[in-house]
Write a structure and sequence with these properties.
This protein is mostly helical. It is 64% helix and 1% strand. It is built from 20 helices and two strands. It has a two-stranded antiparallel sheet with strand order 1-2. A hairpin with a 6-residue loop joins strand 1 and strand 2. It is extended and about 115 Å long.
Length: 490
């Protein structure tokens, strides 16, 4: 900084030095009998050009320095975020490991207790050694054998060999780099997805190239054939896409538990280029998607963002364009982690503003808490605005004259929305600012009406926020525990 100020001072003093030089030159010329060939004007123009050149170069260097400082600050912030994510994952792994150890210890204790009981009750299991006179156990109880086997499996895992004991076929499929077989196996065992998701990262380690295997698994995410099929309702395609996302998440989890050298060995430049080509092929299809129609639960947008995060290629894409995709995935449980992995945390105020303006205050509140923006986006006014907007959109049909089916559907949507608001208040511990008792009473009244199958609820009872009826927007899906629609399986 001192050097830069010195340079600026020297440049500013150039004018005065030129003036001094002009006087000296004039005095020199007055003492010469012959006029100098090099006139002062020529010298002055020469020095002025040098001065301008120096100033321009100085300002260019200042701009470069500012740009470098900005990039350095962003890099440090991203590094801190990644370090925090690694620490969180390490803590989760330690907790999981301790639980397994406790379970193993409990199993061994139980097995020993059963063994003692069997030994004391059944003399046939015990024989006497004639030479030594000592008792010897001829057979071990099955529970004891199973417990020892489980303990060996756990120790085997702790020693760094992540063999998959429950689903050995997963290892085989990964060893063979069989992406189609992997998809089929996950589909056939979709009722055990929670267990599968725990074991897939370990199974991927058996692959010659886990990253390449996951990239292969993305083939067919966008089908070109069967144009008459409604892809939004095609359960097979939806399941396939969820599996693609899950495999990318599992690869991310595997990479997060490795050091930088190991990650570089798995995700080398050739793999990144392949991932970038896939992302560039998907992006035009995302541009055609309707932001409102996605309802914050777009598989396509989620897969695209997960691809960039998993393979570390987000820097190759425009941040503004990526941030515009966040509202399309605002209700998915992985959204906050994705935002941090992509380095888009600074864009969140703008994203939340978009959600508020589009009537999705529940999502806005969730993200405001997640990114410590509740001072800027106060939760209580947002939730009250959500209920108020729902009231404005109320049905023009009077409850007493509404058809039974229409009124039942209306009450059901009303019930779901009230539960969503209550859940949001409770999850974020803001009951003092926004009491839930009036909301819960209204929920009970609607549930009673539903149970009695009488259609409309009794609107002679106390009304909610000054109104007895609301026409609520579509159901808010899962986001940090807010789940009132079909659960996200993958």
């Amino acid at each position: 900084m001192e050097d830069k100020q010195s340079v600026a001072t020297l440049i500013d003093s150039t004018t005065s030095k030129i003036q001094k030089l002009q006087k000296a030159f004039a005095e020199l010329e007055s003492h010469r009998p012959v006029t100098l060939n090099l006139k002062w004007k020529e010298l002055e123009e020469h020095f002025r050009r040098l001065e301008k050149s120096l100033k321009r170069r100085f300002h260019e260097l200042e701009d470069q320095e500012k740009e470098f400082e900005t990039k350095t600050r962003k890099s440090r912030e991203m590094l801190k975020q990644r370090e925090a994510a690694v620490v969180t994952q390490e803590q989760a792994s330690l907790v999981s490991l301790q639980e397994k150890r406790d379970a193993a210890a409990f199993a061994i204790t139980s097995a020993l207790a059963k063994h003692r009981k069997v030994s004391s009750e059944d003399p046939a299991d015990v024989s006497c050694d004639e030479d030594s006179g000592e008792l010897s156990v001829e057979e071990k109880p099955p529970d004891s054998v199973a417990s020892e086997s489980n303990l060996e499996n756990i120790k085997h895992s702790e020693n760094g060999n992540f063999g998959v004991k429950s689903y050995p076929q997963l290892v085989k499929l990964c060893e063979e780099m069989d992406s189609k077989g992997l998809h089929k196996f996950i589909s056939d065992n979709r009722n055990k997805l929670a267990a599968l998701k725990e074991e897939i990262p370990r199974a991927l380690k058996a692959a010659a190239s886990p990253a390449h295997l996951v990239l292969k698994s993305l083939n067919g995410f966008y089908l070109i054939e069967a144009p008459n099929v409604d892809r939004k309702k095609d359960s097979n395609l939806l399941g396939f896409r969820r599996t693609c996302i899950m495999l990318m998440e599992c690869l991310s989890f595997l990479l997060s538990n490795m050091n930088m050298v190991s990650v570089s060995a798995l995700i080398f430049e050739d793999i990144k280029e392949q991932a970038k080509l896939i992302a560039e092929g998907w992006k035009p299809k995302l541009d055609a998607l309707d932001l409102g129609a996605s309802n914050g639960n777009s598989l396509e947008a989620h897969a695209f963002l997960q691809l960039l995060a998993t393979f570390g290629i987000a820097s190759d894409f425009n941040e503004e364009e990526l941030s515009r995709l966040i509202p399309m995935v605002s209700r998915r449980r992985q959204t906050a982690d994705l935002i941090r992995s992509l380095g888009l945390s600074e864009k969140m105020p703008g994203v939340i503003e978009v959600l508020v303006n589009s009537g999705r205050q529940i999502d806005a509140v969730n993200l405001a808490f997640e990114f410590d923006l509740t001072a800027q986006f106060s939760p209580v006014p947002l939730l009250k605005a959500y209920l108020k907007e729902a009231k404005k959109a109320s049905s023009p049909v009077k409850p007493g004259n509404a058809p039974i089916t229409a009124q039942t559907e209306f009450n059901e949507r009303e019930l779901v929305t009230l539960k969503t608001v209550i859940k949001c208040i409770e999850e974020h511990n803001i009951e003092e600012q926004f009491p839930v008792d009036p909301l819960q009473k209204w929920v009970l009244q609607l549930e009673k009406a539903k149970a009695d199958k009488k259609g409309p609820a009794n609107h002679d009872s106390p009304t909610l926020l000054g109104s007895a009826t609301y026409n609520f927007p579509p159901t808010h899906g899962n986001y940090f525990g807010y789940q009132y629609q079909v659960p996200y399986l993958h």
